[in-house]
Amino acid sequence: MDSWVLVDRFSKLLVVVVTAVTVATFVWIGFRTTSLVEASVLTQARSYADLIVAARSWNSGYGGVYVKKGIGAETNPYLLELGVDPDDTLSDGTPVTLRNPAAMTREIGDVLPFSVNGSDFKITSLKPVNPNNAPDEWEQAALAAFERGEKEQWAVADRGDNDRVYRYIRPLAVEQGCLTCHASAGYKLGDVRGGISIVLPYNDVLKELRQSRFQLAVVATFVLLGLWGIVLGLAHWLKRRLRGAEERLREMATTDALTGLWNRRFTLETLVRELERARRSGTRAGVILVDIDHFKAVNDDFGHAAGDDALRLVAHALKDTVRPYDVVGRVGGEEILIFAPDVDSESLLALAERLRVAVEAIDTSAVTGGRPLTLSAGTALAAAEGAVDVDALLARADAAMYAAKDAGRNRVAEG
Q1: Contact 78, 129 (CB under 8 A)
Q2: Which of 323, 324, 331 minimizes the C-alpha distance to 354?
Q3: Which fold is adopted by the domain 264-414?
Q4: Could you give the CA distance from residue 352 to residue 372 in angstroms, rounded to a whole number?
Q5: CB 66 within 8 A of CB 98
Q6: Mean pLDDT lowest for which of 6-15, 155-164, 170-179, 215-224?
Q7: pTM summary value
């Protein structure tokens, strides 16, 4: 499997992992935010309860307090029902009336700042003296739980018309001052007398939570897009580098480093493949084997660097002269093989002659001081029918090339 395919698969896996981790992180942040907001509301409810308990305890500690009678401070009829006379007169004749803990707590709560934001509370009991303090279904369940030892209860409730509220209730224990009114109900000191039930508006809290979740979703989306961009960008860059490296490796495996022509292995493999294709298609193909004349003298007289330059000049001249679909490869020190498809003996010889002329015309002034470069070439045409014997074909071309050398070099011979 190609390495870039592995990179592609790994990048996709990494995208999935990054997505899962990011989503999980932001979901956790969302739940954590919700928990913190709910904890804040619970703290607020507990603070309200603390204020109410403090006021009630103060009143109970004095066995109730007297207030001047008047509008809003009338006689408490429920105390009369319990056999308690709440009314009295000061020495100056001012009429006063008793405010027991429950009544005073209720009246103070009406003027506390938190009552103006939609919050509300009441002191409720399973045995209320005031029928207005009777518990609802949720409060009944909570009061029953308090008698089993639970310490507090809270919940989010729907009052209809999408009006959501936060409910909190805490038990109230019977204090000494409570027995004045409630001893007849069978309560003893320390018993659970009832509970402080608090209602807080929750719609604004839910609105803030929805806004927070939306903002988290937007941030998570942008974070994901950024991470995806980084991962996919790195993967694309790495695949491009890998493909480039593979191309360079493939080129190194098939190309002659000195001349840029196909190397011996690739040339011979291509020759076998193309000759078989020509046989199947019923076309003729041939080869030309060329050798640079007196190449050893170039190395001896001008040095091996000049010899390398001369070999490169010849290679470029050959590549520029052959047809686009001909194959040119270096098969030996200064031997170059040309495979020519779709030719006959005449066109093959003509091609070889053009190659000879092109090499003879090379400007060698910078390499050999103007000494010309020439080549000897031998051609061999593959048989029109039957299996192709590649070794025999090359042997014929090689023999023809040496025949050209024996005939004086710088010429073409047919094999």
Answers
A1: yes
A2: 323
A3: Alpha-Beta Plaits (3.30.70)
A4: 18
A5: yes
A6: 170-179
A7: 0.52
